[in-house]
Each structure stands twice: as C-alpha cells, then as structure tokens.
Amino acid sequence: MEKILILDFGGQYNQLIARRVREQHVYCELRPHSMPLDEIRRFDPIGIIFTGGPHSVYLDDSPRPDPGVFELGVPILGICYGCQLLAQSLGGLVTAAEDASAREYGKTETVFDPTCALFRDLPERSVTWMSHGDYMAQVPEGFRLAAHSAACPTAAICDEERGFYGVQFHPEVNHTAFGREMLRNFLYRVCGAHSDWTMADFKRRSVDELRRHVGDGRVLLALSGGVDSSVLAALLSEAIGSQLTCVFVDHGLLRKNEGDEVEAVFAPRPLNFRRVDAADRFLARLRGVTEPEEKRHIIGEEFIRVFEAEAREIGAVDYLAQGTIYPDVIESGLGESAVIKSHHNVGGLPDYVDFKEILEPLRMLFKDEVRQLGRELGLPESLVARQPFPGPGLAIRVIGDVTEEKLSLLREADSIFREEMAKAGLDQSASQYFAVLTNLRSVGVMGDGRSYDYAVALRSVQTSDFMTADWSRLPYELLDRVSVRIVNEVKGVNRVLYDITSKPPATVEYE
Ligand code: XMP
After folding, report:
1. Cα 269 to chain center, whole Å?
2. Annotated active-site residue in 28, 80, 83, 116
C-alpha cells in the first residue's frame, strides 16, 4: 500500500490534511515531527507533508524534523510553517514580516505558475487561505517562485528536480478554491500515487490480519449500537465468526427506547449478542457527581468492569475490541500509547484492564471511511448513516448531577426533537442532533401560574468529520413545533433554547 507521511508541527488544520489525502484514495498517517529517521525509512512513504504550526522557524526551540528527511529522495510538500521550514532548512531565509502589509490572514487572491506540477491544469488566479506572520525573504538555491499575492512575492516555491514544494497558504481548507486539486497534483503528479486506498481493500486486509492475530482466541466486543461498534461487529464477525461475543451495556443513560431497538437489530444476527442491564451500578456511582471529566472517568471505568465481569462469565476471553476511530487517536496524542487512546474513546479507561489486549481495528479510519466500510460489509444504510451517540450517553447531556428524574425529562424532550426532525425529513441531512438538559432554571408562566423549571437546549450540527462543525440552519417552523411540544408535553421544562455555536469554539457535546 502506498503511504503518505504527514509530519505534525502543531498546526490547527493538521487532521484536515490527513482527511484530504485519504479523500484522494491515498493512505496517510499523521505522526509527530520528531519521528526518528529510521522509523520514517521503515514507514516507507511515497511522499511527505510538513504541516503548518504556531512557531517561527528562526527561533532556536522551534520544532524540526530529522535533517536526514531531505536526503531520502522522497518528495516533500511544506504547508505554511512547513514551507518556511523547508526553505530555511535548505539555505533560504525566513523572517518576521516587520511590515504589517506582508502578514497575511484570510482569503487572498493568488497568482500561480501553471508550469509548476502543483498548479498544473488549474486557473492562474484563484483565492487561497493565508495565515502567516513570517515570510520567506530569500528562497533556497535550486528553488523557484511558483506563486505570489499582492503582499507576498513568495506564496509558493518549488524545486521540481528534488520534488520539494512549499506553499504559504493552506490548501487543505475549503477557503482555498483549488486546494484539493493542488493536493491531488502533489499526490498523483509528484509522488506517483495510484489510488490504492479503498474500503474494499481495507476490509480484505483487516479480515486477514484479524484472523492471523486472534488465531483461535475469543474476542469480546463492546457494542453500543452506534456506527463504529456496529461496523466493527460486522468486520469481526466476518473475520472470526463464532469466536466473537458482542456485549451491549445498558447503562441507564440511553435515549428513549434505545436499548430495545439495539437488541432488535443485533440479537437475531450470529454475533452471540448479550445485553447487560447495568443501570443501577452506573447511576449509583454517578450520584452527586457534577464535574464532566469525573463523570467520563466513572463511566469509562464502569464499562470496563462490566466487560470484565462478562468475560469471566463467558470464560477464556482474550481480547476486548472497541470501535475507536482515528479522530480519537489523533486527539489523544497521536497514538503514543494504547492506554491513552482507549482512555479517550470511552471517556476514561482505568489504568488496569483485565484483558490480554485491546483490539481497535478501526483506529486508523475517519468517520466517513467507517461508514463506507459498513457498506462494504453489507450493513443497511439505516445503521451506517446513524447519527453518532457518545459512549457516556445522556450523562454528558444532563448538565450537572445526573438523576433518574432529569434523565427522564431529557429522554422525552430528545425524543420529541428526533421525531419532529424525522417528520420534517431532516434526520438524514443533519449530522447530529439532540436535546440537552441544562442546569438553568428560569421563571415562566403556565396557565395562570408561575413556573420555575428547566431550560432544554436543542443542538443540531453539520459536519463530515466531527472535528469541526457548524450549527444547522433549521427552519423556524420546525423549531417552533419542537419548542411548543416540549414545553407542553414535558413536565418540568418551561423554556427551549437553540444552540447557534459552531465547533470550535464550542464542542458538539456540552460536557
Ligand atoms: P465533541 O463534543 O468532542 O464531540 O465535539 C465530537 C463527537 O464525538 C462524540 N463524543 C464521544 N463519543 N465517547 C464517544 O463514543 C465519548 O466520550 C465522546 N465524547 C464525544 C460526540 O457525540 C460527537 O459526535
């Protein structure tokens, strides 16, 4: 398989670069900039991308790759900080843009040299997204200028003989009009990629690997009924058949009717499906806990204790499988250690886990790749296209302490919202939508009396990767219907708010 190595210098769009490369059907991994040279050699990339980052290359403590990376004979694309790093490391000069007019932030009209492979077959002028305070005062020997803007004569540089390219702007963000095409040019024209990363191939390889790795061992899968663990159930089932047992934990933090729905979908399949009712133990441990991270840790640990107990009952279980996906790995420090990865996935695994190994076969996939893999495995669209639901469930959607009474209010409000979204035909177009029970109580007037009740917040977002998200522009009529129904039908709620914050600066969930 052909691989692109993305060396991470701390920029805010780094995961997006990885997404963009995968979208072009080329496999890539994001690794720390400090990756040792012999490891880079073993990784055997067909091309390397240096990401952007918040530092200035001319400072002594700025992050740098092993200088041997320039001698590998492998093409390199430097983006923003990565571009300045390339220039400085090879003999150019990078300085702070003293003159404010040389600093560039935002959409910038840029002129390209179409003879440079990066810009071939693209318009000579288009908009790019710039975000830099430093600039290349002098390009290194062997390089030529390949793009400029009004403020910056060195918007892109290239040394085509060595396969080195640098761009000051960010081709990975949508605001760069032809950014995808530029990355595609780098992958296909410069690195000679062949488009060999598809989910059909991934499925074949994973099934083989899992069979080899697991041998005749037994695997317990933590199945939540969400997209990731459902796809993993199908993958494992194809790989190891009856050696798999799927355990679905009803922690009392599920949405209305969810437990029965999950059971109805999975129990009839040959997955050795087991449903565990563990609501009492989860709710007992959550009593009085208000701090979000503490909630996550408690829930993460309880999950594991339940799985361990199930494993003892089943007997001779070697592996615990989880549907961890790539954003979890990236957000937890680039997969430096298995414990940190798993930590994030269920909001805080305990340090000690009584299994021989945790298997995470989807850990290198993005959400839309997981969905595609699900289709390859023959899962129905209704399951593959489901909106995500977090492992800690409604506990992180009840702000503050979690009680049965609050959970019940939230279940009803959330169910009304979901029902109306479906009726309006918007359940498939919104990426994720749900209700949150805030800890805000306010005065209202119901009939002729005063009320002092909770406010429910509605959240709906549009996103493909869940790492950034925009709030959904839902029709007012729909919001009105949902609001009227919630305050009328859910006793204890007298106010409904609609959340119009994107991620960043907010997150999708409230805790
Ligand atoms: P945030 O709130 O981080 O959420 O913007 C991004 C996506 O991740 C889901 N999420 C979780 N999923 N365990 C999960 O399985 C968790 O602890 C967790 N926290 C957030 C969230 O629902 C959204 O889709």
Report:
1. 29
2. 80
Q: Which of 466, 467, 472, 501 to mutate to test the pocket of ligand 1 (most atoms within 8 A of CB)?
A: 466
Active site residue 181: no
Q: Do residues 70 and 76 make contact, with C-beta atoms less than 8 angstroms apart?
A: yes
413 C-alpha to center of ligand 1: Å? 20
Neighbour-count burial of 483, counting CB atoms closer than 10 A to its CB (0-12 exposed, 13-18 middle, 19+ buried): buried
Q: Is 300 in the pocket of ligand 1 (CB under 6 A)?
A: no
Closest CA to 472 of 435, 501, 505: 501
pTM of the model: 0.81
The answer to whether 116 is a known catalytic residue is no
What is the number of alpha carbons within 13 Å of residue 188 lying toward its C-beta? 15
Nearest CA to ligand 1 atom 11: 390
Q: Tens digit of pLDDT for each residue in 208-238?
A: 999 999 999 999 999 998 999 999 999 999 9
> Among 158-162, 349-353, 409-413, 447-451, where is mean pLDDT lowest?
349-353
Indicate whether residue 52 lines ligand 1 (CB < 6 A): no
Active site residue 405: no
**Average model confidence (pLDDT) for the chain?**
91
Q: Which of 125-129, 153-157, 241-245, 324-328 has the lowest mean pLDDT?
A: 324-328
State the DSSP string of 21-46: HHHTT-EEEEEETT--HHHHHHH--S
Exposed, middle or buried, 441 (CB in 10 Å: 0-12/13-18/19+)?
A: middle
